[in-house]
Design goal:
12 helices, 4 strands
């Protein structure tokens, strides 16, 4: 397969004289970083990520994110599930990058047998998150289940990937997402104002599946009834940046 080049790639390699004459604004081409598998992060990358995350906690920023997630924005049990959370995580990533510009939210590919345990480098990271008044601070707690349970959840992903409409696909994906939430913290709910919903591992829990939404959503462009009835949801899912995708990219603000 021949490599493909975007218009932005072509402009980056254009003759300097052309760039001088055209005067393309630098902000059109923000620096690009690939999101990485959490298992492959170096010690330095892990430390930078946790430093940025802890800084957001201390500043009260994470508490604001948690509060928003706990509010009713119809981001669960509806077709807003995918686009809403992908934008939500992008905003969280931008906040992290305001501390360390090279930080991105990594992904946790829990569908791989080798990764079906809670990431060891996060096991001791259980911060207390200050919340906006009058809410009380919340301390992160976890009690991951056995790997076999996570493997069972992962086994359902091929069936969800085979679904041919956005409605059924997003519903099936949310069920998987809910299962991993409960695996990490039994008894947790998906809509409570809980900082566990916004902590790094929670972002990766959506690991493999959000990226595939991009490919899966392209099927619906040729589905007339779906294109007519769900244009906004389909466009949002197919165009929003991938939050935790293998090989996905993130533009720094």
């Amino acid at each position: 397969m021949e490599p493909t080049f975007s218009f932005a790639d072509m402009l980056r390699t254009a003759d300097p004289e052309i760039l001088r004459l055209v005067k393309i604004p630098a902000q059109w081409f923000p620096k690009i970083h690939d999101r990485e598998d959490q298992a492959k992060l170096s010690k330095h990358e892990r430390e930078r990520f946790l430093c940025a995350f802890q800084t957001l906690i201390g500043a009260g920023t994470l508490g604001q994110f948690v509060k928003i997630h706990g509010e009713t924005h119809y981001q669960h049990m509806s077709e807003r599930f995918l686009p809403w959370h992908r934008v939500f995580l992008l905003l969280l990533e931008h906040a992290l990058q305001s501390i360390h510009p090279d930080v991105t939210i990594p992904y946790w590919n829990w569908t791989k047998a080798a990764s079906q345990t809670f990431p060891a480098w996060l096991a001791s990271f259980t911060p207390t998150v200050p919340m906006p008044p009058p809410m009380s601070p919340i301390t992160v707690t976890r009690s991951p289940g056995p790997s076999s349970w996570l493997a069972t959840i992962a086994s359902s992903t091929p069936g969800v990937m085979a679904l041919s409409t956005f409605s059924t696909f997003t519903g099936g994906l949310e069920n998987i997402h809910n299962g991993v939430h409960v695996w990490v913290t039994p008894g947790s709910t998906r809509i409570s104002p809980d900082p566990r919903r916004a902590q790094p591992a929670r972002s990766w829990i959506r690991g493999l599946t959000p990226s595939r939404t991009l490919a899966a959503s392209r099927r619906w462009d040729t589905n007339t009834s779906e294109a007519e009835t769900q244009p906004k949801a389909r466009r949002a899912a197919s165009m929003a940046p991938s939050m935790a995708a293998a090989g996905s990219r993130s533009a720094l603000p």
